[in-house]
Amino acid sequence: MPFTRRLAGAFAAAVAVAGMSGCGTISSMNPFSSSADKAGAPAAAASAAACPQAVVLRPLANTVVFGPGEARRQINIAFTGRLSDVDIKCDFAGGALRAAFDVIVVAERGPAAHGNDVDLDYFVAVTGPDQSIINKKNFAVHIAIPPGAKRAAVTDHFEQAIDTGGRPPGDLTIDVGFQQSPEAVEYFKNFRRQ
């Protein structure tokens, strides 16, 4: 079926992005420059810069963490994770594009959950118009689900300098997705066949 092939192709491409290490790095930055840094700068330069489009990759928007045991079935899922949203604000300073990210990550208990805490890994990749990865960085987020609750969400805030590879920000895309474990990749492949 054409739709099934397209979905499988999109999942394979997204997994390829998740599996690649970055060609560069997205280095951590201090908070945005102070007003003193902008003193004397033209008003246009001081205004917020255009950001690359930020998207959560649909095939990598969900992940699973399995409990103990060998079977990778729904009954063995300890926690699920979902990348709910990503918001980005950009600024130019010193000739560099700097961005503030807010990534909303949701965790939910599964049937095999023991405990209240889960650690999830996601990535942020800057890609060019041809989908080539300019740079990529992984992030870990810890979510504590309150006792008696089924799910919890956190907003992971961080600020980064973005290496644009000499391209205008409008030519770039910022892709966000879970860094899938081999077990999660296999589970989703089988899950989509059902």
What can you see in these coordinates?
The protein is an alpha+beta fold. It has one domain. 20% of the residues lie in helices and 42% in strands. The chain has 4 helices and 8 strands. The strands form 2 sheets. Strands 1-8-5-6 form a 4-stranded mixed sheet, with helices on one face. Strands 2-3-4-7 form a 4-stranded antiparallel sheet, with helices on one face. A hairpin with a 2-residue loop joins strand 3 and strand 4. The N terminus is likely disordered.
In short:
With 194 residues, the protein is α+β, with helices and mostly antiparallel strands. The chain is built from four helices and eight strands; from the N terminus they run αααββββββββα.
Our estimate of the beta-strand percent is: 35-45%
Q: Mean of the pLDDT scores?
A: 77
Spatial strand order of the main sheet: 1-8-5-6
Contiguous low-pLDDT stretches (5 residues minimum) are 1-47
**End-to-end separation:** 15 Å
Total number of strands: 8
Give a quick set of tags describing it.
disordered N terminus; 4-stranded mixed β-sheet; alpha+beta; 4-stranded antiparallel β-sheet; single chain
Which helices and strands, and how do they pair?
Elements: H1 2-19, H2 35-38, H3 43-46, E1 53-56, E2 62-66, E3 77-93, E4 96-109, E5 117-127, E6 133-144, E7 151-162, E8 173-178, H4 182-193
